[in-house]
Write a structure and sequence with these properties.
single chain; 328 residues; mainly alpha; Rhopdopsin 7-helix transmembrane proteins; 14 helices; globular; disordered C terminus; G-protein coupled receptor; G protein-coupled receptor activity; transmembrane helix
């Protein structure tokens, strides 16, 4: 996911410096300009969406509820991942011929951000599970402080894994690890990023199906929880859709290095199969960190209105009780 595969794709541009200055750079820029333009548009939308969502929650005291706070934490992780993935595009293509040291630092920080986003998706899945299976316990025990603490833990774990990835990355660039081994490692990392949230979601979902049949929640509270559940489900589904192209590209890279496509390992396969898939993956992964604020907007009526949140369900029954006591 944070691999050097995209950097490696254009190593021929870096190695053959004279040919670059003789005109290949212009051809390269024309060829990759569409990717860069799309990336800029998506990046701008993502920055605006994540920033607006974050400050909407932070600056409005009524929105500082566990679900909203978890969304704010996710927007921070998505913002960092979006920016790092965007930076990778010009330095991994041939717009800027940066040094290996700069690329390694960018990859290290990207690894931290992506893992943090993955962990925050898991946190959202856990909150969804608690809301459906233990709604009344969640009402009192799940606090915004606990959500922030879990976010802090996820960032700490992500930093540790980012350092580990940085050590591995330097061994690769020092040629201690060959390309065939690296291709397998990068595929495993991509599968980890994809499958960890999916695994938690599937496990939680199976348990939720049993609980929903026995639910005795008030209609208003149940409607709010179902809306939140749909929102989180949509986030997870789109997460899988947008991450999958990178996994497919890594798989193709593994097959290429093991000469599965051709006995001779023809480079045209890499050029016309692997490179286009990586180009698509660069765009979809940006979309992954951009689309969430727009999903929040679709569900804003149920998510960002305090009346719909279960904490207000107890208050909503007070007028009814008073009318009953007065015989009305």
């Amino acid at each position: 996911m944070t691999n050097q595969s995209v950097v490696e794709i254009n190593t021929s541009v870096e190695i053959n410096t004279t040919s670059v200055h003789d005109g290949n750079l212009l051809h390269c820029v024309e060829e990759e300009s569409l990717i860069l333009i799309m990336a800029v548009v998506i990046w701008v939308l993502g920055v605006i969406g994540n920033t607006v969502t974050f400050f909407k929650i932070v600056l409005n005291k009524r929105l500082r509820r566990p679900v909203s706070v978890s969304i704010a934490c996710l927007t921070v992780a998505d913002f960092c991942s979006l920016c790092m993935q965007f930076i990778r595009i010009p330095i991994s293509q041939c717009f800027f011929l940066t040094g290996i040291g700069v690329k390694m630092i960018v990859l290290d920080i990207t690894a931290v951000a992506i893992h943090s986003s993955t962990m925050h998706i898991v946190i959202l899945a856990a909150i969804r599970y608690c809301l459906i299976v233990y709604p009344f316990h969640t009402k009192w025990r799940l606090t915004s402080g606990k959500v922030i603490a879990s976010s802090g833990v996820s960032w700490a774990i992500s930093v540790c894994l980012g350092i580990s990835y940085g050590i591995y990355n330097r061994k690769y660039y020092n040629k201690t690890i060959d390309k065939q081994t690296d291709a397998i490692v990068q595929l495993l990392i991509g599968l980890y990023v994809l499958l960890v949230p999916v695994t938690f979601f599937v496990i939680f979902y199976i348990k939720e199906l049993r609980t929903m049949k026995k639910s005795l929640l008030p209609k208003r509270t149940s409607k709010s929880i179902i809306s939140i559940s749909k929102m989180i489900s949509m986030i997870l589904i789109l997460y899988c859709v947008f991450i999958l192209p990178y996994v497919v590209a890594d798989l193709c890279r593994v097959l290429y290095f093991h000469n599965v496509f051709s006995d001779s390992g023809d480079s045209t396969v890499y050029q016309y199969v692997v490179i286009p898939i990586y180009s698509v993956a660069q765009i979809t992964i940006l979309l992954n960190y951009t689309v969430n604020p727009f999903i929040y907007f679709l569900f804003s009526r149920m998510i960002f209105r305090v009346r719909s949140w279960p904490f207000r369900s107890k208050l909503s029954y007070r007028p009814r009780k008073r009318r009953e006591q007065n015989g009305i």
